[in-house]
Amino acid sequence: MKTTVTALNGALIGEPEMIVIPAGDFLMGSDPARDPDASPEEQPQHRLYLPEFAISRTPITNAQYLVFLQATHYRPPSHWRFLRWRIRRIPAQQAEHPVINISWYDAVAYCKWLTQYTGKSYRLPSEAEWEKAARGADGRRFPWGDEWDEARCNIAPSKEHTTPVNAFPAGASPYGVLDMVGNVWEWTRSLWGMNLRAPTFGYPYDPDDGRENQAAPEFIRRVLRGVSFYNDPHMARCAARYRYSPHNRFDSVGFRVVIS
Length: 260
Description:
260 residues, 12 strands, single chain, four-stranded mixed β-sheet, paralog of FGE (formylglycine-generating enzyme), four-stranded antiparallel β-sheet
């Protein structure tokens, strides 16, 4: 699904490489009988049908996000002040690292721009789409299976910073999607709710219960998936859920995109 688009400055750029995830059922969430690290917000495990969609093979990189910044002169509104976007140029030798310090709104802005310049409907994945792309249909704990292997991903205690998005091919999901655990947390479009400790939107997952409301105010936390380079292995599971306020930016948070 690789094509090219022309940026405002006339340069030819590549779209993110996309991988098609076929329509069908998958097991979402965790079963404590199979996963000793299962958390309450991941339960009950349930079967969910999703139509076909395509997801970017890797998180969006510094190089890809820089094209967006140069094409649009994008600046985050001043009231999203937790951190200011600071990357105006790519750090040395980090073009293929995942872009970080990205708020949910920054990620949405990138999706809107990419949609405009490709004519395709790019957006953030729902957490259900993200999880299916990460684990396939069989409910495995990790993208590669049920047994932990730190050599397959960028995660603590042996890792201390981001790595190139193609650095761990052995950690690919059943569909060939990379970095689904480790490297950076990834924004989804799905809502968590206001309560920091317990999600307003629990399981079984229901896309029509308000959790996919893209007009939700900024005090409603959004779901993140994927775990970052500094987290412990018990969080590095396909079903693990986390949350941040949508205006937050951290050096451990990035995103990827989908087309449906």
